[in-house]
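Researcher: I'm preparing a figure for a lab meeting and need a structural model of a single chain. I don't have an experimental structure, so a prediction will have to do for now. The sequence is pasted below. Please return the structure as tokens so I can convert it later.
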Amino acid sequence: MNYFVKGNPDLCIGCRTCMIGCVVAHEGKHIFEIDPDSYTFNPKLHVVKTANISVPVQCKHCENPACMAVCPVGAISQKEHCIVIDPDKCIGCKSCEDSCPFGAINMVPVAGKFQADGSEKKVANKCDLCIENPAGPACVRVCPTEALTLVTEEELVDSMEKKRAESARIAFCEMHPQK
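Model: Understood. Here is the structure written out token by token.
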């Protein structure tokens, strides 16, 4: 089973610390030492913030990912409980971006790489659960309100068991109101 990060809109304050943590985790601390105008900020998740709700939206690492199915060059694959994009293989066709039901993939420029026509090369970008970091997803670690949770198979099984037990309890109470 693929893991994924779940956001709790009741706890999210829309501060976007998760986005900064994501960029730092993938680009390194040097982003704080360079001119902000010379750096492209490309987080692998996006905070949706409205008057009523705020929550990060990121890849759900689907078990049968549409993005992987439509990629014509095999740039998207499963690796260690998550779906990842190989930016070196990506041709920027946007098929994955269009097929994602969550809007979790976007196209980002690659610094220093250009197309044949001189325009910046763009590749697909999405959450990779910070696969290279043994500590896990940076967004989960840096969230000040603990609105983000890494969902593993064990946690999902535990959650399902609790929901089933609660459903059984409710059904029993409805059938036997005096008990």
